[in-house]
Design brief:
The chain is α/β, with parallel strands linked by helices. It has a single domain, classed as Rossmann fold, CATH 3.40.50.150. It is built from ten helices and seven strands. Helix 8 packs across helix 10. The radius of gyration is 18 Å and the shape is globular. The two termini are 25 Å apart.
């Protein structure tokens, strides 16, 4: 998958908007699902990679017993700082770390979890190899990825609206990266390249994304993701106008009051 330099940049006000708007919009239900799958294996030591602002971390902290150690990591320091400011129901170790070069010993975790992060890695097979290295025998890697953007209606609507605004060079972050790593055969190939030999559990799970009004998805996607940088690069000072155009597109498709759209993701688990 082609990587762009700005695709992993979550800085400035982006982490706060991401956490306050995008997390409840699309991430919370999948965080509960992923954390429950991890908890069902009763691990003693859990590593979360690409933890973002901590939505899965908080679910893990609520579900796992105090005796289970949780280490939550992210490459992006501003996102991790935002995560650490939100209280968790129990102690969590927060660490800045690169998923391609994890600073942990071999076989030191019973579970590794990653919510919607592997799409951002410049080398998925390398990241899977690192996850496998730090997993103890019998341990499991759990992760999820978004399905193609057409199955995620708010994101697709925003991308389509931005393509109309910038027809010569449309912002493609959402389609390229968050929704760009959904092919099952490709994921399984990368897992094998990363050293996993077991058969992966692969579940496709649909859900609903709801917000009080159409401006919420527009602000969340345009200002709470690296799409913001794409817009500002194409039209300096045009972020508000682009966000308003996306809000109008969401309103036209889903109504001017409370909005409800389909989201869909794949959940993958594979044991060592």
């Amino acid at each position: 998958m082609r990587q762009h330099d700005g695709d992993s940049v979550f800085s400035g006000s982006v982490p706060e908007i991401y956490d306050s708007l995008l997390v409840p919009l699309i991430f919370e239900s999948y965080a509960r699902d992923l954390a429950s799958r991890v908890a069902a294996r009763r691990p003693r030591r859990v590593l979360e990679i690409a933890a973002g602002t901590g939505v899965v971390t908080r679910q893990l902290a609520a579900l796992l017993p105090e005796a289970t150690a949780i280490v939550a990591t992210d490459l992006n320091e501003p996102m991790l700082q935002r995560a650490a400011t939100v209280a968790t129901p129990r102690q969590v170790e927060w660490r800045q770390a690169d998923a391609l070069h994890l600073p942990f010993e071999d076989a030191s975790f019973d579970a590794v979890a990653c919510q919607f992060g592997v799409m951002f890695f410049p080398d998925q097979a390398r990241a899977f190899a690192e996850a496998r290295r730090v997993l103890a025998q019998g341990g499991t890697l759990f992760f999820n990825v978004w399905d193609r953007i057409e199955e995620n209606e708010f994101a697709h609507t925003v991308v389509s609206a931005l393509a109309e605004l910038f027809p010569e060079d449309p912002p493609r972050f959402l389609a390229r990266t968050p929704h760009g790593y959904h092919d099952r055969l490709g994921i399984e190939r990368d897992l094998r390249r990363g050293g996993f030999t077991a058969e992966a559990e692969f579940v496709t799970l649909g859900a609903r994304s709801r917000a009080p009004g159409p401006s919420i998805p527009a602000v969340a996607y345009c200002q709470g993701t690296p799409t913001r940088g794409e817009i500002e690069q194409r039209q300096p000072g045009g972020l508000a106008a682009a966000t308003a155009a996306c809000a109008a597109a969401v309103s036209a498709r889903f109504g001017a009051a409370a909005v409800d759209g389909r989201i869909q993701a794949h959940i993958i688990a594979i044991a060592v």
